[in-house]
């Protein structure tokens, strides 16, 4: 598994990755799991929370916000459902 963008999040990312790979291979691929009942969702939220703090500490959160704002109109066009 790959390392997290933020070293301090490696442990929680590893827990999530392990959980997800097990769920994906043992349940989802066998037709016994649905994407909306993934039991690893809590671990993913923990990882997101850790990343948000790390990104904010490094000032990357503002760069992401600016990039999202810059592409908002284009994203809206391409994300429309047909």
UniProtKB/TrEMBL annotation:
Protein name: Mitochondrial distribution/morphology family 35/apoptosis
GO molecular function: phosphatidic acid transfer activity
GO BP annotation list: phospholipid translocation
Pfam family, one: UPF0203
Organism: Pseudomassariella vexata
Matches recorded under PROSITE patterns: CHCH (PS51808)
Keyword entries, A-Z: Disulfide bond
InterPro entries for the chain: MDM35_apoptosis (IPR007918)
Family indicated by similarity: Belongs to the TRIAP1/MDM35 family.
One GO cellular component term noted in the UniProt record for this chain: nucleus
